[in-house]
Amino acid sequence: MPSCSIEITEVEALGVSNIFRKLLLFFPPSVLVALPEEMLRQLVDNLTALTLKFAQGAAHEEMLDHEDQLYMEAFEQMLQSWVCILQESSSCNSSQVKQSATLIFDTYLKCHLAPPDGSRVAVSVWHTFVYVFRTYLLPESLKKFQHRIIDKKKA
Which domain of life is it from (predicted)? Predict the structure, then answer.
C-alpha cells in the first residue's frame, strides 16, 4: 500500500487535491509517461496515498456531520484526477493504475461498511436525530414559519 509521509490537514487537503487535478488536467498521462519511470511510479503512489487519506477523512466528516466537508471536496477532486488517468490508461503502467484503482475502491467500501468487513463506526442516536432534524424536519418547519409570516403580512 502506498504511504504518504507528509501530514496534510483538512484545510490543506482541498488545495493539494486541486494541485493534482490541475496537474493531470494540463499534463495528461500521455505527456507524463515521458517522465522517468521511477518518478511516474512515485507520482501514482502519492496520488493513491492522498486519495486514500482523503477518502477516509471524507467518511469521518460524514459520520460527524461536519458542515464544511473539506475532505469530501478534496476526495472528489482526487477522483477527477483519477478519471484523467483512467481515460488514458493505455498510456500508463496499467498494472500499477489497476492496483491503485482497486485499492481506492476497496478503501471507499471499507469506509462505508460496518465491521467486520468495514471500518464505519456506528452512529449514535444523537447524530441520527441531528441528521434527520436538519435534513427533513427543519426545512418543513421553516416553510411553515415562512407561510405564517406571509399570511400575517397579507392580513
Answer: Eukaryota
Extract the C-alpha cell encoding 76.
472528489
* Contact between residue 74 and residue 54 where contact means Cβ atoms under 8 Å apart: yes
The most confident of 40-49, 60-69, 141-150, by mean pLDDT: 40-49
CA neighbours closer than 13 Å in the CB half-sphere of residue 39? 6
- Name the more confident of 9 and 90: 9
| 63 vs 146, residue with greater confidence | 63
What distance in Å separates the CA atoms of residue 97 and residue 30, rounded to the nearest whole number?
Answer: 14
C-alpha span between 71 and 80 (Å, rounded): 14
Q: Are 28 and 86 in contact (CB under 8 A)?
A: no
**Residue for cell digits 505527456?**
31
Q: Are 111 and 57 in contact (CB under 8 A)?
A: no
pTM: 0.70
